[in-house]
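In the laboratory, one determines a bound structure by crystallizing the protein with its ligand and collecting diffraction data. In a computational setting the workflow is compressed into a single prediction: the sequence and the ligand go in, and a structural description comes out. We illustrate the idea with flavin-adenine dinucleotide.
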Amino acid sequence: MKEMEYDVLVVGGGPGGSTAARYAAEKGASVLMIEKRQEIGSPVRCGEGISLGWLEDYGIKEDESWLIHRIDGAKVVSPSGFTLEINAKMAGNEVGATIRRDFFDQMLAEMAARAGADIMVKTSARSLIWDDKHNVAGVKARCNGEDCIIKAKVVIGADGFESQIGRWAGISTVLKQGDIATNFQYHMIGIDIDARFSEFHLGSIAKGGGYAWVFPKGEDEANVGLGVTLDMIKQGGEPKRLLDRFIDKHPELKKGKIVEQVAGAVSVGVPPDITVKNGVMLVGDAARMADAITGGGIRNAIRSGKIAGETAGEAIEIGDISHINLYEKRWRAEMEDELYRDWMAKNKLVTLSDEEFDDLISALSEADIENLSVYEILEVVKEKNPKLVEDLMSFL
Ligand SMILES: Cc1cc2nc3c(=O)[nH]c(=O)nc-3n(C[C@H](O)[C@H](O)[C@H](O)COP(=O)(O)OP(=O)(O)OC[C@H]3O[C@@H](n4cnc5c(N)ncnc54)[C@H](O)[C@@H]3O)c2cc1C
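The predicted complex, in structure-token form:
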């Protein structure tokens, strides 16, 4: 059986994996990233919406090969059509874009390769292997159709929402049904949209437990999707039916043609109590780090990937694998408050009726919000509708 040996093995070639591989390699560790699909980033299962302000912190240069459509802001639309327009000023210049996710993921993998990481596609981790002290020693895998063993001192689980690495390492990443969003999305052409804005539609259209989105990819095309938490779903195929109903209600979308469809799940929960154990680290969706309000997880996969990769690289550099335990402290210091705050806000939002969504969005759209923050939103809503903010007072 083919055997390989590396300092750090990264399982999964998404944004979290490629970023972890890049930063570990930059620290001088020998790194292999494996990806079970035969092409990084493909097929795409993503709305492809991101904000841009943070990319440079990770050395990512904006490039037209993957950055296909810039937007000026977002519109948040209530069930009766009240609209909150979030512009660049309110969002602290955190304006967004729609990307070609396959090209974006490939660009991140190329950055990892340039930093010195090896990459193997069509290679799937099948189980973890352990040394006699029960520290991870690598994985058993299928490498291009053949069994193989990849030995490593550190294994980074970047294997996405359906992650197995955490479970194999004894880390419970099980989510409650209300913390799983199931999504269905069409790529539509020939629609009549304001391509300067992405749209988020709230309320019973997504059974109150999610939202429908329109992320423009050009003047007459967009990713049009809908996500709903699993606890709201009574029958199979419901996200698709809800999305079809949403499109039916919007003539500007209904006139378009569907050229592609995707389905997939994302965590809208919070990370497990531990994300490092016996030489195994979890990043991105594998560690349930997607934002609970939007279900967006690309940025947090990259944030956690950097921290994990750097920490693993340092552990190799100083010859002390226990150093990777610092990852827990480091990502929590940077990201945990934000993840919990958004999860609590999501848990409140899913309890709102259509009338309350109307009240909330109309109050916000009438207010002159300078800088969109949870604090400011709550202040405005408190003035107009104190009952709505009662449960959220702890944020203030
Ligand atoms: C329909 C939908 C729409 C979304 N829209 C957005 C959006 O608009 N914006 C946003 O920010 N986020 C969005 N997300 C979430 C976003 O896609 C994820 O949060 C992000 O991809 C997480 O990155 P990751 O690297 O952690 O995992 P992933 O990108 O999921 O990468 C994991 C990789 O691991 C590989 N893998 C799994 N198991 C193994 C194994 N055993 N061996 C080897 N390889 C393995 C997989 O093939 C995959 O390539 C959306 C998700 C869905 C489902």
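The longest strand covers residues 146-157. Keep in mind that any predicted model is a hypothesis to be tested, not a measurement.
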